[in-house]
Amino acid sequence: TALQHNGLVIMADREISPPLEILHFISGDNVAVFPSTLLIAETGSRLRILERHISADHGRQFCGALQQYHLSSASSVKYALVQELNSRSRAVELSHMMADDSAEMEHLVSHPGAAWARQETVCILNGDGAGVRLLSANHLKENKKLDQRTCQKHVYRGASSNLLYANVLDDEANSIFSGMILVAEGAHDTSAYQSNRNLILSPRAEANSIPGLEILADRVQCSHGSATSSISPEEIFYLLSRGIPEQTARSMIAQGFLKHALDQFGDETIRAAVESLILP
Prior knowledge:
Elements: E1 6-12, E2 20-26, E3 31-33, E4 35-41, E5 46-55, E6 61-71, E7 76-84, E8 90-99, E9 104-110, E10 116-125, E11 131-140, E12 145-154, E13 160-169, E14 174-183, E15 191-200, E16 206-215, E17 221-230, H1 233-240, H2 246-262, H3 268-278
Parallel strand pairs: 1-4, 2-5, 3-6, 4-6, 5-7, 6-8, 7-9, 8-10, 9-11, 10-12, 11-13, 12-14, 13-15, 14-16, 15-17
Helix pairs in contact: 1-2
């Protein structure tokens, strides 16, 4: 907290129609920035936000960013975060959200930039009927590394959370996913899901996945899973037989893999903006 110099507070008490866009531009060599966003969605409010962290030049940079979201009863937030630092830089993105009764949040993160990035997402559902959807789509190339840690913490009954993180890895890229669904005592009638999917395009790429469950309540529906695969020769052959060059075919398959996660995000305007930034 002592390093936070670029703080932004958004308080919404009603529906805000146009999507808000937050841009943090980072310039210079050997520069560190620590942007912070605090979002307070009051009862019944509705808003949509796209936040971007962008390198303005090719200097060596570090971004240590914090996003905090507090959703009051019956509020709704759709929030997308895209990290676009240059390939000489590093990034740490910390996201922390709390959802009260009947609050709904969709949270989408993507990391097309930075040589190394860590994303930590903590979601606390402390209200009856609260619902959170956590999404991520990333295409990692060269020797980029992405480390993602998540916690879906249910502390009250009747809430739901759903996580889908998808990664395409090429060249010598490396990904780590470690997720936990925690259902506390008394958080009965919980519904929670967690899925990490990885598509490997190169024999030198590597994906590591560690999903987890800890359930201390009754009448819950919880599951987690991880799947890592490569493009099958049959898929390539099918597209080649229709006159599509191999490199284009591989790119199309990767796009379709990531779009499955992106299509879960409910706001078409923000989703289209994110797709234009991250899809190969």
